[in-house]
TrEMBL record:
InterPro entries in the cross-refs: His_deacetylse_dom, His_deacetylse_dom_sf, Ureohydrolase_dom_sf
Coiled-coil residue windows: none
Top-level taxon of origin: Eukaryota
Pfam family, one: Hist_deacetyl
Name by which UniProt lists this protein: Histone deacetylase domain-containing protein
Residues covered by the Histone deacetylase domain: 18-82
Annotated Gene Ontology cellular component terms: cytoplasm; histone deacetylase complex
Any GO BP annotation: epigenetic regulation of gene expression
GO molecular function, one term: histone deacetylase activity
Species: Aegilops tauschii subsp. strangulata (Goatgrass)
Length: 120
């Protein structure tokens, strides 16, 4: 996931954009990562909060990757559920047996590290 905060000169960001690589899902054949539908929901919730704090909630997503149609559709739908303050349906899609490690803890640590580095 790459992010770009669009800035006004000498001011707060006016919007944010995010490229989400859904090929990070554990079921996707390309990346070989261990994201789940729930992971994307958690990331979207964090992005939503960050956008609220920095740019009045304005956010644009760009879809990147995602070659397993089942995991792609469930993860994109859960991303929107997070932004609409609806509960995640990840428990209906994610099978813990597909994982060798759930990356949520590491993702949260990375987000906190970035926030600290950028004084957010």
């Amino acid at each position: 996931m790459r992010s770009l905060l669009h800035l006004r000169s000498g001011s707060s960001p006016i919007s944010s954009s995010f490229q989400l690589g859904y090929d990070a899902h554990a079921l996707d054949p390309l990346a070989g990562l261990q994201f789940t539908t729930g992971t994307f929901y958690m990331l979207a919730s964090s992005i939503k909060q960050l956008a609220r704090e920095l740019c009045s909630g304005r956010c644009v997503f760009f879809l990147e990757g995602g070659y397993n149609l089942q995991s792609l559709s469930s993860s994109v739908a859960d991303t929107f559920r997070a932004f609409l303050d609806e509960p995640s349906l990840a428990a209906q899609f994610d099978d813990p047996a597909m994982l060798y490690e759930e990356p949520t803890r590491r993702i949260k640590e990375a987000i906190e590290k970035v926030r600290h580095l950028h004084s957010l």
